Amino acid sequence: MQQAPAVIITRPEPQASDWAQALQRELGDRARVLVWPLIEIAAVEHAAYRERLHAAWEQLPQTAAAFFVSVPAVEHFFAAVPDAAARWNAGHTRAWAPGRGTLQALLQAGVDPARIDSPPPDVAQFDSEALWPLIQPQLAAARQAGRCVLRVRGTEDPKPDAIQPDYGAGRDWMGEQLVQAGLEVRTVVAYQRQAPRWAPAQQETVRTLASQRNLWLWSSSQALNHLQTLLPQQDWSQATALATHPRIAARARAAGYGTILQTRPTLHDVSHSIQSWL
What we know:
The protein is α/β, with parallel strands linked by helices. Helices cover 42% and strands 19% of the residues.
């Protein structure tokens, strides 16, 4: 009997396993949902990062809004201090979430829903561009009051850069727009990212998966880059990439995936796309 095709989840844990379980229930025996996280997440270890993280909490009264770039950004920011939700809700800082996962993470952290700005569920694409029109009305008051915007993100650098101490890897379209609007943008690194370390047997397993008609779910260009580094000579012409954003789709196309599909980053839309592919 022919083995069912595999759907490979590349998100960080624990989101990867959560997605895998939900998709396996949706897909049944039509596909094997496998977990191969391509980004490992950890709390920042360097003292300077931790100090800035705590300073960001102390500066919340002077902060108009915090822009959380990802689920780990929320989780590690709110894990940095005791009684984080109560401290947040006692102030006036708004929380900006570009994606549904980030929105859910803020709600799970205990942030007052009335203080969160996020694109509506029916938006075509969950990203900074979709969030921008929603937060623009807040900018004039923030600028007049002299309050900054805090950008909460991750980094691949184990220690801060001496020249750019607020450096954090990732796309910064939102930061550029805010600076152009006359606002001060501060960055705090809340977590570290790194590529997984695979044993030879793991590499061989993934090479086999890559050579077959399987589908790789990509929600991060950085995760895709990590896989290219781990398997630099791999032929991806038999594989399908399901990307949750046009930029990720473009990166998969450049990597040589035989089929490129695109979907909104919700469980419903991802499941529907996979079922259509099957």
